Model the fold of this input.
Amino acid sequence: GAVVSQHPSRVICKSGTSVKIECRSLDFQATTMFWYRQFPKQSLMLMATSNEGSKATYEQGVEKDKFLINHASLTLSTLTVTSAHPEDSSFYICSGKTSGGGGEQFFGPGTRLTVL
Amino acid sequence: GENVEQHPSTLSVQEGDSAVIKCTYSDSASNYFPWYKQELGKRPQLIIDIRSNVGEKKDQRIAVTLNKTAKHFSLHITETQPEDSAVYFCAASNTGGGNKLTFGTGTQLKVEL
Done:
């Protein structure tokens, strides 16, 4: 099956710093990548959708200047959390999707971000 | 936008019993309905999905039913085993309208010995 990796798996940072999370599709071309955030004991909430070579589309309530998304190639998307604060501590999960297919998304293993 | 509701939030069954989780959706344009199993700290794992042109789909102990008219779909797990214990999420998307997945709130399933 299609494999998506994420790096790092865990990151701890100080308040005010920026953190970059990488999402890679290892064996397929992900024309569309999605970024989700999951707080403890809650569901996955879509943050943004990014298409390769285009600007990301952010969901309502997600600050685009705080959560910078880049999808420069068909196998790599990055999420940068700028000026992180403790309330940004969460589990961030990406997924990739091919141009065809029937809607299935392939999820990365997630990144646990803790902001002190 | 799409809104997906999921019930129950917790479900405890005895090993060997069946478990049923129900979801409703609001957007009639949604046509793809996956179910995920998520263990603590892990990625969501697709266990079964159904598309709007099908009313039922089965894969061994897992089955999903879809009622488009009523806008609800259900997950059925038969002969439950302790390893089925996890959080299960339903989701819905419109594959012709951006493919955004809207997730349900999740069901914590516990299979007791």
Observations:
- Chain A has a mean pLDDT of 94.
- The first strand of chain A starts at residue 4 and ends at 7.
- Residues 2 and 110 of chain A are 16 Å apart (CA to CA).
- The radius of gyration of chain A is 13 Å.
